[in-house]
Write a structure and sequence with these properties.
The complex is a heterodimer of chains A (498) and B (337). With 498 residues, chain A is an alpha/beta fold. In chain A, the strands form five sheets. In chain A, strands 6-7-8-3-9-10 form a six-stranded mixed sheet, with helices on both faces. In chain A, strands 16-19-20-13-21-22 form a six-stranded mixed sheet, with helices on both faces. In chain A, strand 4 and strand 5 form a beta hairpin. Chain A is globular and about 70 Å long. The mean pLDDT of chain A is 87. Chain B is mostly helical and 337 residues long. Chain B has one domain: ABC transporter involved in vitamin B12 uptake, BtuC (Orthogonal Bundle), CATH 1.10.3470. The two termini of chain B are 22 Å apart. Chain B is globular, with a radius of gyration of 21 Å. In chain B, strands 1-4 form a two-stranded antiparallel ribbon. A two-stranded antiparallel sheet of chain B has the order 2-3. Classes of the chains: A alpha/beta (498), B mainly alpha (337). Chains A and B meet through helix 11, helix 12 and strand 18 of A and helix 10 and helix 11 of B.
Chain lengths: 498, 337
């Protein structure tokens, strides 16, 4: 064990990290050997991002020792960590979209040489060398913003290689890739490992990278709960360790066959985002829209709520045309939208729980120019109780709540407006497992009350557990319509990424 | 809530700090210059002095609550005053009977308020519909408003009002200066708007997170338009008080009030990024500034040094508030499961 530790490239011992009274990591040991690929798995909030921040020097550890390539670092910052060969590729790749492929790859290297002037020839040479190393061909002069996602990722990998990376940390590397692209990525990873470059995959969906990895480490609530050879794990056991329990199979409730059609979407198109979207939504139906990251699912959701103005197409609700490109009109037609990013789009974090719910109902509780505070309070409290929000005080800021409770507050805002159609974009992202099951129950309940629900998600078990029908999108178009309850997770995954 | 937690909530509020500051400055000045600072003459003169810039600070507060700012308040005040002054000098003469001149005064006041509202519509439209950053939109429009006022007057002061004009700025009702009463009314109105109306709540929420307001289907454009219209009309009232007290109107009166209004709003705990602000805080900040200003005057500190002190104070308060805000955020890191 000790010799293995001596040879390790990264050797973290008993790392603990506390933020203002919250323990993000507790007593975690973590090693990576040269040329080894490690899967770091865990749900949102499990501490995996914190661990990455500590390795890359962005955050200091509260306790514990850090050794990189045999050298102990009492103080680590991003510069020291990068100089030691640790490179992080974030989910958004952190590339400069307006610069060329060559410039992006060579940027960091050229900075470190302290060269004062920009040298085009040297830049191209560095970039060419890095691309050759992984055996891919990308136009060196193309602007990065014009590249598809998979190629951007390759550019990011090359940038890391050009800076003499010994360890590449990849955050959610496969969420935007098709099956073919994933296979190519796996090939590149194998090649890198042969050259002695280590890789850490950080993800909550790891099935795709499991077979190129040697080791799996699972974090839950800041503690290491499982570690072992990758061959001993499969999707089920990973989920078990990540969540700490078996997730029961749930199927959507049967819906009434005679339900009337609620919403008609006809030929909705927006250049560059989505093309010719058609569907009908019945009352009491839960309809899923899924697809890879960047397939246009969020743009469609925003267009339905008027946040994106489509070029063409119509939306009708119960026989009446809903003006497009106007959130207030959509809201008046009683369409509700719970956005993807709770923290920036969904909630007013510094404001009270009460206000976060009440914002949708201010006009209804105004008489003689003044707000009826008691009426607002009573109504909000009722909805919070019905959704079982655990809040000590409705006057507390909404940021003091956990993710699951925050999501229920966002739901309560729209439910208090008695919506006819509710669009939920990633309703259980960043929510703990227990709350997730509760949110799914809420969705099923709402549907049985006759609300039409559109669920945008890439969480396949979630779709299978709640949806009567699932639309699959690729490159801005609906490519498949699947009946819920009959399709399996494998089949759905295949349709998504093929 | 026990008495202890109530006490703790009261003492940890930013407004409590302000109360302490206001009292400290008052005591300090009383000690440094007891016979002059505490004289009834000085106290009355202070009560006449501060309402004009305090009302501008209220206008600034409302704009800042949205995360914006209104740097055209002084320009609007002067343009409103010039319009009122031109109406008064054109249609009245000092020999006119009081009843008749009061009628013209009313008309001039209404015209001034309309100017403020129109100026506010301009600002609001630039910010809401053309998407200009408030700081640039209002710097630009402020110059335009001042320019109009100069064009109307040729840059010189307009004077020769009937005696009734002095009612606004120099009279007392039940021993209280009229400007003070006007300020009190506007402060209460703004307080009620911010805490008791749908509009006020939307302003606060929009200031806290504009994107979330968009996603919550708030009519943001109409809200912003209203904010700048109200700020414009408050500025007009300030302009009328200045006109009455100076017994004249001029395009460049009160130029030091702009910095002062920003300073008071920030000192009063209004978050310049939007989403937090209380009128009581602004009132306390006004009092602190007036005590400080009068005191420095009595200690014969030059006007230049006074601006330096204000500028330094502005930076100091912002640093303190930003630090306090950061520690507040850390406190909320604890989640309730």
């Amino acid at each position: 064990m000790s010799s293995e530790r001596d040879a390790a490239f990264i050797d973290l011992r008993a790392i603990t990290k506390r933020y203002a009274g919250v323990t993000a990591l507790q007593d975690v040991d973590f090693t990576v050997q040269p040329g080894e690929a490690v899967c770091l798995a865990g749900e949102n909030g499990s501490g995996k991002s914190t661990l990455i921040k500590i390795i890359s020097g962005v955050e200091p550890a509260t306790e514990g020792t850090i050794r990189i390539a045999g050298q102990e670092h009492a103080v680590l910052n991003p510069r020291i960590s990068a100089a030691a060969g640790v490179m992080v590729i974030f989910q958004d790749f952190s590339l400069f979209p307006n610069l060329s492929v060559a410039e992006n790859i060579a940027f960091a290297t050229q900075l470190s040489t302290r060269e004062r002037f920009f040298k085009p020839a040297a830049t191209r040479q560095i970039a060419r060398k890095a691309l050759d190393r992984i055996g891919v061909e990308i136009d060196l002069d193309a602007r990065v913003e014009t590249l598809p996602v998979a190629q951007k990722q390759l550019v990011a990998i090359c940038r890391a290689l050009a800076s003499e990376a010994q360890l590449i940390i990849m955050d959610e590397p496969t969420t935007a890739l098709t099956e073919k692209e994933v296979r190519r990525l796996q090939g590149i990873i194998r090649m890198l490992k042969e050259e002695g470059v280590a890789v850490i995959f950080v993800s909550h969906k790891l099935a795709e990278v499991l077979d190129v990895s040697e080791k799996v480490v699972v974090l839950r609530n800041g503690k290491k709960v499982a570690e072992g050879p990758a061959s001993e794990f499969n999707t089920q056991s990973l989920t078990y360790h990540m969540t700490g329990r078996d997730v029961p199979d749930v199927t959507p409730r049967t819906r009434r066959a005679d339900a009337e059609t609620l919403m008609h979407v006809n030929g909705l198109s927006k250049a560059g985002s989505f093309e010719d979207i058609n569907f009908e939504l019945k009352s009491g139906e839960v309809m899923g829209i899924t697809g890879l990251l960047g397939c246009g699912r969020t743009s469609v959701a925003k267009a339905l709520f008027g946040l994106v103005a489509p070029d063409r197409g119509t939306i009708t609700l119960a026989g009446q045309t809903v003006p497009t490109g106007d959130p207030q009109a959509a809201s008046r037609a009683r369409i509700g939208y719970v956005p993807e990013d709770r923290l920036t789009e969904g909630l007013f974090l510094s404001q009270s729980i009460l206000r976060n719910v009440a914002i949708g109902r201010l006009d209804a509780h105004t008489s003689g120019g003044f707000l009826n505070m008691n009426g607002l309070l009573a109504e909000a409290t009722e909805w919070l109780q019905r959704l079982k929000v655990k809040a000590p005080d409705v006057q507390a800021p909404v940021q003091s709540l956990s993710g699951g409770n925050q999501q229920r507050v966002a739901l309560a805002r729209w439910l208090s407006r008695a919506p006819r159609v509710l669009i939920l974009n990633g309703p259980s992202v960043g929510v703990d497992v227990g709350s997730k099951a509760d949110i799914h129950d809420i969705i099923r309940d709402l549907a049985s009350q006759g609300i039409g629900i559109i669920l945008i998600s890439d969480d396949l078990p979630e779709l299978l557990a709640t949806c009567h029908r699932i639309l699959v999108m690729r490159d801005g178009r609906i490519t498949d319509t699947l009946e819920g309850g009959t399709v399996t997770e494998e089949e759905l995954a295949h349709r998504l990424a093929s | 809530m026990s008495n202890q937690t109530i006490m703790k909530n009261v003492t940890s509020a930013p407004e409590f700090r302000l109360l302490v500051i206001a009292i400290s400055v008052f005591v300090l000045m009383s000690v440094l210059s007891p016979d002059r600072f505490l004289s009834s003459q000085n106290l009355t003169s202070m009560a006449f002095q501060f309402p004009e810039f305090a009302i501008l600070a209220l206008a600034m507060t409302l704009a800042m609550m949205t995360g914006g700012i209104d740097l055209s308040v002084v320009g609007i005040a002067n343009l409103s005053a010039v319009v009122a002054a031109v109406i008064l000098t054109t249609f009245t003469d000092p020999a006119m009977p009081a009843a008749q001149s009061a009628l013209w005064l009313t008309l001039a006041v209404v015209a001034a308020l309309c100017v403020g509202a129109l100026a506010g519509v301009t600002n609001g439209a630039l910010i809401a519909f053309f998407g200009l950053p408030p700081i640039l939109a209002t710097v630009g429009s402020g110059l335009v408003f001042t320019g109009f006022a100069i064009a109307m007057t040729g840059g010189s002061a307009v004077m020769g009002f009937p005696g009734t004009v002095a009612l606004i700025g120099n009279a007392q009702i039940f021993g209280l200066p009229v400007p003070l009463i006007l300020f009190a009314i506007l402060a209460v109105v703004l307080h009620l708007i911010l805490t008791r109306t749908a509009f006020g709540l939307r302003v606060t929420m929009y200031g806290a997170n504009p994107l979330a307001a968009l996603y919550a289907a708030v009519d943001i454009n109409r809200m912003l338009l209203k904010v700048y219209v109200i700020a414009g009309m408050f500025s007009s009232v300030a302009g009328l008080i200045i006109m009455s007290r100076a017994n004249s109107a001029k395009a460049d009166y009160g130029s030091s009030y702009l910095l002062l209004a920003v300073l008071i709003a920030v000192l009063g705990g209004v978050n310049p990024y939007g989403g937090y602000g209380r009128v009581i805080g602004v009132v306390l900040a006004v009092l602190s500034m007036q005590f400080l200003s009068s005191g420095l005057n009595m200690l014969q500190v030059s006007n230049f040094a006074r601006e330096l002190i204000w500028g330094a104070l502005l930076i100091f308060v912002m640093v303190i508030n930003t630090q306090a805000l950061a520690s507040l955020r850390d406190g909320f890191g604890k989640t309730v499961k």
